[in-house]
Amino acid sequence: MNENERHISIWSHFLKIVEQIVEPQKFATWFLPVRPVSIVDSTLTVEVPSDFFREYLEATYLDVIKKTLKRVIGSDAKLVYLVRTVRTQPAIAVPAAAGLAPVNREVSINVQPSPNPSPFVYPGLRKIQINPKLNPVYCFSNFIVGECNKMGYTAGTAISAAPGRTSFNPLFIFGGPGLGKTHLAQAIGIDIHEKFPELIVLYVNGNEFKTQYMDAVNVRNKLTDFLGFYKKIDVLIVDDIQDLQGPGTQTAFFNIFNHLHQTGKQLIFTSDRAPVELQNFEDRLLSRFKWGLSVELLHPDYATRLQMLKALCRREGVTIGQDVLEYLASNIKTNFRELEGAFLSVMAYATAMHAENSVELAARVTEKIISAPVKELTISAVQAAVCDYFNISSDELVSKSRKRQIVQARQIAMYLCRNLISNCSLSTIGAETGGKDHATVLHSCNMVSDLMATDRVFKKYVSDLESRLVPAEA
Residue 203 in 3-state DSSP? Predict the structure, then answer.
């Protein structure tokens, strides 16, 4: 065998073995994209699409990979990953609004004519046009990629390349307001529409779906039309899915979800909280939200904020000094939406007043947005306050101790973190509290809520701590 081809032969042998172990769909998603690069002695180097891909591969299939490599190469087998660099985004190089909005192909809906008109189907017509409701501005070329959303971007591009055929089904995108959930979800839909124009793509928000359902149940034969309409969709994007409240709405959505998922259609959801934190949802629906991949979008870091501002300059065709951009990026830290709002406010004020863009102008225009900087409340600050209040050490707080006082303090700390720190996920709180999982954190928060309702002394503990911490957050 040619030595230059040895790594290819070894990887081919490796894949044949793994293919017999891993489910076909997951094998195609997680192993076929990997490319062998070289082998030196017993060390095989392979190329993977991204850091996220490598992390997921190791977290899920490390045992399979280890055993198979030892079988193919020998007991000294080692694997080295070479991460393929994710391409830099053009970042709003051209205003996408100038393009045409995506249009679905016509689709047949087979229903019996009804004396009552339906909002979805027009009796007597065999073909209807489904408006995908995708905004062309929300495309991938306008999506700023940073550490805060790289995982979501990687998953999104994988889905758009093979909708319904990856392990990311459903894709559940969650995070605080203005972090790009809607943009990412619609970008996936737009990219799928461009690559697979024969697929029917639909974007709908949770409130709109709920209203459609309520209208459908109040008129004879409308519910059948409603369900038939949604079961024709190939890629369903539901924004703000936390708004799907009501047993009837959730039952209808459950049936639609099952039909689409079982027939290989792609489902994408966005929410302001993680699946485990959704309230008033049926357990069977929550379990399905967790079937695929849940991705949290985080607050953008300084580099990503600055990148967005430069992209906005290109989109608007304006030149702004680096010092002004750096001032805005340094002071508007909350989310992309507020950052863009501050940028446009500065531009509008400079134009209206014929003033030169400067740091002084930016400070004057945005003073009500950024005001005086305050110390942001953190998990460590909450834990420090709890430890001081109960006179225990930080090591005791995050330990596995089951002493009543320690457990009580630990649960209160988790509760305060969840309620006082914005966009702080259960997983993050658990990781900072001795590596607890999200279920433990949720249980602790529920326990504190229950005790506050029945135990006055316990409620005073929580109230005292809140009064100490809230000023730091205000």
Answer: strand
Please name the helix (run of DSSP H) or strand (run of DSSP E) that holds residue 46, with its range, or none: strand 43-48
Q: Quick one: DSSP state of residue 3? A: G
Pairing of strands 127-129, 106-108: antiparallel
Strands 106-108 and 78-83: unpaired
Tell me the residue ranges of DSSP E strands in 120-248: 127-129, 171-174, 201-205, 235-239
Q: Sign of torsion, CA 342 344 347 353?
A: negative
Tokens matching residue 151: 């995982």
Continuous H helices in 31-149: 51-72
Max Cα-Cα span within the chain: 78
pLDDT value at residue 209: 92
CB–CB of 62/32 below 8 Å?
Answer: no
Identify the bridge partners of residue 418 per DSSP, sorted by sequence position: none
Q: Give the position of tokens 């070479």.
A: 82
Hey, how many other C-beta atoms are within 10 angstroms of the C-beta on 3? 7
- The model's pLDDT over 365-374, given as tens digits with 9 standing for 90+, comes to 777 666 444 4
- Exposure class string for 90-120: b at 16+ Cβ within 10 A, else e: ebbeeebeeeeebebeeeebeeeeeeeebeb
Question: In the prediction, which pLDDT does 2 show?
Answer: 57
